Amino acid sequence: MPGDLILAIDAGTQSIRAAFVDAAGEIVGFHQIHIEPFVSPQPGWAEQDPEYLWGALCDAVTGLTAAHPALTGRIAAVTLAVQRLTMVNVDANGAPLRPAIIWADNRRADPAKVLGRPLLSAGKLIGVGGLLEFSAGYARSNWIQQNQPELWAATHKYLFLSGFFTQRLTGEFRDSAANILGTIPFDTKTSEWSKPRSINGALFPVESEKLPDVVPPGQSLGHVTAQAATVTGIPTGTPMIAAASDKACDVLGAGCLSPDQGSISFGTTATFNVPIKSYLELERFLPPFPAALPGQFHTEVAVLRGLWLVSWFKEEFGLAERLAAAETGRTPEEFFDDLIRDIPAGSMGLMTLPSWMPGPHGDPWGKGAVFGFGDVHTRAHLYRSILEGIVFALYAGSVQTAKKTG
After folding, report:
1. CA dist list (Å): 134 to 203, 207, 234, 361
2. 350 with 372: CB under 8 angstroms?
3. Are residues 42 and 179 both part of a single domain?
C-alpha cells in the first residue's frame, strides 16, 4: 500500500544496521550498532555469543524506531540479511548451547574421521583430495561432533545466524534458501537438503531433524511474535519475508541482474559476483551461491580478509588518524585517504598478498604476505599496498569469472 515501509535488518560482521525503506527503494530511516566481530579463545578461533548478537540486533531496531516513531506504524514487513557461514547450535527453545562459530574461524575437524582414509586416498587419485579434506575439515558441524559430542547430541537445531535470528523474531525454525551455503548438506542446484548418501551428506553428516525448514526468497518465514515485539519494538504480527545472505543482497541491491554485469562488494570479505540464471561452477565441485532471486545463482570470487585488512591497519597503525577522527567528526579512513594522496601507484614496489585466510584450493597453512620493503617505505605505502592487493585479487577473480561465464 502507499506509504508502506520495509524494515530491513543487515547483520554484518562489524555492525548491525536497521533501516526503513520505502517502495521506491529509498532509505528514510537508519540506525547502526557497531559490534565486536568475534573473540578468539584459542589461536585461529573466531566465536561470538549469539545472545550478544541478538541484543545488538534489538538495539539497532529499537534505536531506529525511537528515532522515527511516526514511521513504525507503517512497517509492512521485515527482512533480514546476515553475515554468512556463522553457525549456532540451539536447544528446542532456541537457546544457544555454545558460542556461535564465526565464518572467520580457522579450526579444523579431522577429515579422515569423517570420510575415512580410503575415500580420501581415492579422492587424491582423481585430483579432488585437497577439496575433500578442506570441506570435511572446515565444516563446523564436524568439529563439534568430534570435540563436543555431548553438545552435538543435545542440539535440537543447527542454524545459520540468519536462522537463529528468524527463530527469535518469529518462533519458527526456518530460513531462506538464499542463506544456505557452504559446509552444510544442501543441494544448491535444487535448493533442497541433500540426501544422507549424497556426497554432501557424506562430507557434512548433519541429521535431517537438526536442520531448519527452507523457504524460497520472497516467501513468508512467519510473523513477529509478541515476545519479539517487546524487545525490538516491531509490531506483533508483522510478516517476516525471506531475503538472502548479505552478499546476495549486495548483488541485487547494486542492480546487477545479468551475466554481463559484475558486482564488487567491499565488506569484511571483499567479493566479485556475477549473476547467472543457471547452475555453473567456477571451479570443479564448488557450487555457485544462491541468489536473492528464486532459482537463480551468482558466482563469487572472494578475498576472505578484504576490508578486514583496512580495519586491521587502522587498529595497528592508525592511532593518529583515529584520534584525529574523534576530534573532528571525520572517519579515520578519510585521513588515510589524505595520507596516501601522494603515494604513486604500485606503492614504490611494496606488495600485499591478502591471503590472510585459506580457501578450499589453497594450502591450509598458507599465509598472507607483504614484501618488497625498501628504505623509502612508510606506513602510507603499506596502506596503499593493502588497497592495491585487495583490488588486484578481485581483478584476477574477474578475469577467471569472465573465462567461465563468457
Report:
1. 10, 21, 42, 8
2. yes
3. yes
Please give the angle made by the CA atoms of 93, 191 and 157, to the nearest 5 degrees: 15
Can you tell me which residue has the cell 604513486? Answer: 344
**Residue 72 is assigned to a structural domain of this protein:** yes
Question: The C-alpha cell of 257 is what?
Answer: 541482474
**CATH assignment of the domain containing 66:** 3.30.420.40
Would you say residue 248 lies in a domain?
Answer: no
Q: Which of 271, 302, 307 is nearest to 383 (CA)?
A: 307
- Nearest-5° angle of CA 159, CA 165, CA 169? 130
- 287: amino acid identity, one letter: P
Helix, strand, or coil (residue 345): coil
**111/133 Cα distance (integer angstroms):** 5
Number of structural domains, the chain? Answer: 2
Q: How far apart are CA 304 and CA 183, in angstroms?
A: 16
- CB–CB of 311/387 below 8 Å? no
3 state SS of 119: helix
Q: Nearest Cα to 100, choosing from 149, 56, 158?
A: 158
Tens-binned pLDDT, residue by residue, of the chain (406 aa): 668 999 999 999 999 999 999 999 999 999 999 999 999 999 999 999 999 999 999 999 999 999 999 999 999 999 999 999 999 999 999 999 999 999 999 999 999 999 888 777 777 777 777 888 888 999 999 999 999 999 999 999 999 999 999 999 999 999 999 999 989 999 999 999 999 889 899 999 999 999 999 999 999 999 999 999 999 999 999 999 999 999 999 999 999 999 999 999 998 889 999 999 999 988 877 899 999 999 999 999 888 888 989 999 999 999 999 999 999 999 999 999 999 999 999 999 999 998 765 555 555 566 789 999 999 999 999 999 999 999 999 999 899 898 888 7
Grid cell listed for 283: 571451479
Residues 81 and 161 both lie in one domain: yes
Are 123 and 129 in contact, with CB atoms under 8 Å apart? yes
| Cα distance between residue 380 and residue 384, in whole Å | 6
Cell triple for 100: 556461535
